[in-house]
Write a structure and sequence with these properties.
712 residues; alpha/beta; 24 helices; 39% helix; globular
């Protein structure tokens, strides 16, 4: 739990306010999905012993939609040609209120929850007896585990316009929620919005950042509000005013998104979501926030200083990093062992613990890989092509860094070393976010590596993101981050691709196949299959599916291979044919990545069936054919549409270091920019440099184009 959210443990009574922008869709109709998710969260809280009170908007919007439709149905063509008069808001409220409550009642009934309706007006609260009776009624409802649903009774309200009477007791449903929080002695008020929380400026602007904890003295004069709500009364301005009022009167408030399906649950669990308002916020010794944007901008500035160094100076930085890793190996191993021990105690899967562990000799291997990288040709500012455009006008196409990279990876601390060294070699700034299970390992490796970077470049060249909360902010920075590379589970990669406009490079699955053709040397096949599966089962280039030609069924060679796999501890699962032939359990799916000592086996008719199977169920990562038939091998190599395709070699060779790239930031199954193991070349782009002596276009009148290729 975030320290600033420690008060959550004492929360019993919660008021949730849901605004019109959350209740309705852009077309004015009720947002059934969002309301359903809201009711499910309320049900979960109610079942967990919390007392939940709902304040809802949306009646006017729902009524307006219904009355417009009714008016359209009852209108003649001539009526529709006349100027349309805006519908009366109070009539809309009267019509919409019943429909809105009917929907809440239906949704809650499906969840075995009872709800009740309480309509109030501003003038009601002027009566002390009303306030007392209100508190008693709500107390009785909550004791019965009934959800009170409040709304301002706009149909009979005497208010002429929002905010017109500043002396009013409340002026919209945000201020009503704040008032109820105090009257009903709520422990927490949650204001649901159509954005994640309070931003320093309009959320759509690139320089706006999410404020996690609102401190009135610090933020009051800094915030620039955008447009009001598209459908409600006040938008974020009203929410902040209500939140400040309630928080400084003693009820903590969180403004968060009503568009996500679990935001309320996350708030109650103490997660750092949305914006917190608390009367003691100014007293807290909040950590100095280094915004995601600041980290990215600092990395870019440092990368430009790195690029200005000579090739030898950049090479020396890499050699210093390699030496520093070896010099600190003992300390690195201590921190890594602590991570491994914690992961084992937490019950993590063996495959994750395997990826997490820095085995003996791993640091030396990584250091030597960095030295290989340092000895490679300098990739920056290489002239790739020279062209004479016209007499005295020379154009050069040169290599240059992409800019700033964001790498999100899970459980593999060795990935941090490889990625950092590639970033230095390619002149890129780098932001790293590792998994929490490798927190200590990543921290010490980052400290050792940045400690070897000279001050002339700056240690902020490589930033380590320590909070999961910063990732959503980073993924919005498409103006300062140039490429995102996720390394981890299918879920991680998919989430990142769906959450950013920044180009994403990587692969979601590593479903690698080995196909044994009918003409295969079975001893060779046995060696390749065993290596592809057992050398490092948790790797993305490990074999997950073994395809065999039907002519090999029941042959001694294939039987020996399967026996050998079982003796090595590999659990075998079959497709529909193999499971019957060999009496093994049926595989859960052909599109399945085990990441462990297990694999799927299936029988295919021929090489073309094998290729079709790979295209249908594979992940376009690495696939291999074992055969002595060179014609069959060529068919496989040229028709399998994967990032890496092998003949008579283990899939485990698909690796940046083994390919001679020095290291890799990951393996890409994308078809744009880079594919397969991504080394230095995949982290570069191009820049055009034109040298002339005063030439101008002037409608191309005086230019004689030669477009002559020149030697490099």
């Amino acid at each position: 739990m975030d320290p600033s959210r420690s008060f959550i443990k004492d929360v019993k009574r919660i008021i949730i306010k849901v605004g019109t922008a959350v209740v309705t869709r852009a077309d004015g109709r009720l947002a059934l999905g969002r309301l359903g998710a809201l009711c499910e969260q309320v049900k979960e809280l109610n079942s967990s012993g919390f007392e939940v009170i709902l304040v809802t908007s949306g009646a006017v919007g729902a009524g307006r939609q219904r009355l417009r439709f009714r008016k359209l149905v009852n209108s003649s063509f001539a009526d529709l040609q006349k100027p349309q008069v805006e519908l009366d808001g109070k009539a809309c409220a009267a019509v919409g209120q019943s429909g809105l409550m009917a929907l809440y009642d239906a949704l809650f009934s499906q969840l075995d929850v009872t709800s009740s309706q309480l309509l109030v007006t501003d003038s009601d609260f002027k009566d002390p007896n009303f306030r007392m009776q209100l508190c008693q009624t709500v107390k009785s409802l909550l004791a019965l585990k009934v959800i009170p649903v409040f709304n301002e009774n706009d149909a009979i309200s005497t208010r002429r316009a929002p905010y017109e009477d500043s002396s009013g007791i409340f002026w919209d449903n945000d201020s009503l929620a704040a008032l109820l929080a105090l009257e009903l002695k709520a422990d927490l008020l949650v204001l649901l919005s159509d954005v994640e929380g309070l931003y320093s400026g309009p959320p759509g602007e690139p320089h706006s950042k999410l404020i996690r904890t609102y401190v009135k003295e610090r933020h009051h004069g800094e915030i620039t509000f955008g447009d009001k709500s598209r459908v409600g009364r006040g938008g974020m301005t009203a929410k902040v005013k209500a939140a400040v009022y309630a928080a400084y009167a003693g009820t903590p408030v969180v403004i968060t998104s009503g568009f996500t399906t679990d935001s309320i649950i996350k708030v109650v669990q103490g997660e750092r979501v949305g914006t917190l308002f608390h009367q003691d916020a100014s007293k807290w010794a909040l950590p100095k926030e280094v915004s995601a944007r600041c980290m990215a901008v600092s990395a870019r500035e440092c990368s430009r200083r790195l690029q200005s160094l000579s090739s030898e100076e950049r090479k020396k930085i890499l050699l210093d990093i390699a030496n520093a890793l070896e010099a600190n190996e003992k300390l690195i191993r201590i921190e890594n062992e602590a991570d491994v021990s914690a992961a084992q105690q937490a019950g993590y899967e063996k495959s994750l613990i395997s990826r997490l562990t820095l085995k003996p000799g791993k640091i030396s291997f990584l250091a030597n890989s960095i030295r290989v990288l340092a000895d490679m040709e300098d990739p920056i500012c290489r002239v790739l092509k020279r062209t004479e455009l016209a007499d005295g006008l020379i154009l050069e196409k040169t290599s240059c860094p992409l800019g700033v990279l964001l790498i999100v990876f899970e459980s593999r601390p060795d990935a941090l070393v490889q990625i950092a060294s590639l970033a230095v070699r390619s002149g890129n700034g780098l932001l790293l976010k590792g998994g929490k299970e490798a927190m200590r390992s990543n921290a010490i490796l980052h400290k050792v590596i940045t400690g070897a970077i000279p001050d002339v470049v700056g240690e902020k060249l490589i930033g380590l993101v320590t909070s999961r909360d910063e990732i959503p902010d980073l993924l919005k920075l498409d103006d300062v981050i140039d490429l995102v590379i996720p390394r981890g589970s299918n879920k991680l990669v998919t989430q990142i691709k769906e959450s950013t406009k920044i180009p994403v490079l990587g692969h979601a699955d590593g479903i690698c196949h080995v196909y044994i053709d009918k003409s295969a040397d079975m001893e060779m096949a046995k060696c390749i299959v065993l290596d592809a599966k057992t050398d490092y089962p948790a790797a993305c280039n490990a074999m997950e599916t073994l395809l065999v030609h039907k002519d090999l069924l029941k042959t001694e060679g294939l039987n020996d291979l399967l026996t050998e796999l079982k003796s090595e501890g590999v659990a075998l699962y079959g497709g529909s044919i193999a499971s019957l032939e060999y009496g093994i359990p049926e595989a859960p799916s052909f599109h399945h990545e085990y990441n462990s000592m297990a694999c799927t086996i299936e029988v295919v008719d021929d090489i073309h069936s094998a290729i079709d199977h790979i295209h249908q169920y594979g992940s376009a990562h690495t696939d291999c054919i074992v055969t002595e038939d060179l014609a069959a091998a060529e068919i496989f190599l040229h028709q399998v549409d994967s990032a890496a395709v092998f003949h008579n070699a283990s899939t485990r060779f698909c690796d940046g270091a083994r390919f001679g790239l020095g290291a890799e930031v990951g393996i890409s199954t994308s078809r744009i920019h880079a594919r397969g193991p991504v080394g230095v070349e995949g982290l570069l782009t191009t820049r055009w440099i034109l040298r002339g002596n005063g030439q101008v276009v002037d409608g191309d009148k005086g230019v004689v184009y030669t477009h002559r290729n020149l030697p490099l």
